[in-house]
Every structure is written in structure tokens, then in C-alpha cells.
From TrEMBL:
Function comment: May be required for disulfide bond formation in some proteins.
UniProt family annotation: Belongs to the thioredoxin family. DsbA subfamily.
GO molecular function: isomerase activity
Every Thioredoxin domain range: 21-212
Protein name: Protein-disulfide isomerase
The UniProt record lists the keyword Acetylation: no
InterPro entries, sorted: TAT_signal, Thioredoxin-like_fold, Thioredoxin-like_sf, Thioredoxin_domain
A Pfam family annotated for this UniProt entry: Thioredoxin_4
Signal peptide from the UniProt entry: 1-31
PANTHER family: GLUTATHIONE S-TRANSFERASE KAPPA, THIOREDOXIN-LIKE REDUCTASE RV2466C
Taxonomic superkingdom: Bacteria
Keyword line: Isomerase, Signal
Organism: Kaistia geumhonensis
Length: 212
């Protein structure tokens, strides 16, 4: 369900609890291992794509993630760094991270990542996954998010402006809605390896096999 800015702020201010477990949403249009139209998948959304690696790399990995998802954190903590070093930094893979927030708190995290000063999207995402337990599962998540956001250059004013930005909220929701409706994303994390859908927190060994 999409929220307008007022509904979003009310729910965020009420300290909406994060979804910490593997979350299932309405029925998928594409089953695991089914291949979607890669050219269509790679069309960026209204906020542009947040990508790492050579745009001409022979392989593309797209991840739909939620910043409050414990399985997404597990992938980030255990697999992402060695995967990036082995495949992204060597020009073999272009990696794209797409917003798929499962709750208003995760939506706020993505809005802050997109609005992070000096294009610090990925450092902000890294910080939010690394410190997930310190903001996603606490009694006052807004204050916790503000404290973390200051580490990437936000002030209280720019923090509040980001979270009140209706266009940013609409953009995050649009990326999520398109992922669900056009590509059958129904859980996080969900990966597309050269267009082939692979739900779940993949290991480096899984990725080795899929990219071989």
C-alpha cells in the first residue's frame, strides 16, 4: 500500500515497527528462475538507478531490498563485500540496488539514502544495514535515524526536508510498485541475475554458480 506524505509521516512518527523477517507480499507474477525482459528490467525508475560497476559489464545483477529486512542485512553483511570485490570492482558485473521498502521506516531509510549529501547513496545504505538493530528495532527510530544520518552529512534541517519530500516518497513507492507489478517481486531480497529471478539472500557460492 502506498502512502501519501501526510500518512507516511504519521505512521513514521508513531514509530511503526519494521518488518524484520522474510516478508511475503501478494502473489508473484514471475516464479523463481523465470527470466524477465532484461531490457525492460534495466529501464530506470523516476529516481534513476543506483548502480555500481561498469555499465558495459557482461553481467547485470539487480537487487530489490528493504533496509529493515534482516535477510537483506545478512546478504549485505556476509556476501556483498566479497561479491563486489570479485565481480563489480573487476568489471564483470554491474550491480543495481532498487528500493523495495516493506514498511514506512524502510521507506524513510531509502528517502534519506537518495537525498544523502554528496551522492552518498551507497555509504548511507551501508550504514543503515550495518547499524540496522540501532534504528530499525528501537523505541525512537526517528531520533536514531537522525543520529546516523549526521554521519553522512545531514543536518537536522536537511534530514527533515528529505523526509517531507513528496516527490522523493512518490519515487521510492514507484520503484517498489513497478518491481511488484512488472517483475513479480514479492519478498526481499530478490535478485535478478541477467534477468533471471532469484529470491532470498544469496551466498557468494550461489552467485559464483549463477555467473559462471
Amino acid at each position: 500500500m502506498d502512502l501519501d506524505r501526510r500518512q507516511f509521516l504519521v505512521r513514521l512518527g508513531a514509530g511503526t515497527l519494521a518488518a524484520g523477517a522474510f516478508a511475503m507480499l501478494p502473489a508473484a507474477a514471475f516464479a523463481a528462475d523465470e527470466k524477465v525482459d532484461l531490457q525492460k528490467l534495466l529501464e530506470p525508475g523516476p529516481l534513476g538507478d543506483m548502480a555500481l560497476g561498469d555499465p558495459k559489464a557482461p553481467h547485470t545483477v539487480v537487487e530489490y531490498a528493504s533496509l529493515t529486512c534482516s535477510h537483506c542485512k545478512h546478504f549485505h553483511d556476509t556476501t556483498f563485500k566479497p561479491f563486489k570485490e570479485k565481480y563489480v570492482d573487476t568489471g564483470k558485473v554491474r550491480f543495481i540496488l532498487r528500493d523495495f521498502p516493506l514498511d514506512p521506516l524502510a521507506t524513510a531509510g531509502f528517502m534519506l539514502a537518495h537525498a544523502a549529501p554528496n551522492n552518498n547513496f551507497f555509504p548511507m545504505v551501508d550504514l543503515l544495514f550495518t547499524q540496522q538493530e540501532k534504528w530499525a528495532f528501537v523505541d525512537d527510530p526517528v531520533s536514531a535515524l537522525l543520529d546516523l544520518s549526521k554521519q553522512v552529512g545531514f543536518t537536522q534541517e536537511t534530514f527533515e526536508l528529505a523526509l517531507k519530500n513528496q516527490a522523493l516518497l512518490d519515487g521510492v513507492n514507484a520503484v517498489k510498485d513497478r518491481g511488484a507489478k512488472e517483475f513479480g517481486v514479492d519478498a526481499t531480497p530478490t535478485f535478478f541475475i541477467d534477468g533471471v529471478k532469484k529470491p532470498g539472500a544469496l551466498s557468494l557460492e550461489d552467485l559464483d554458480a549463477l555467473l559462471s
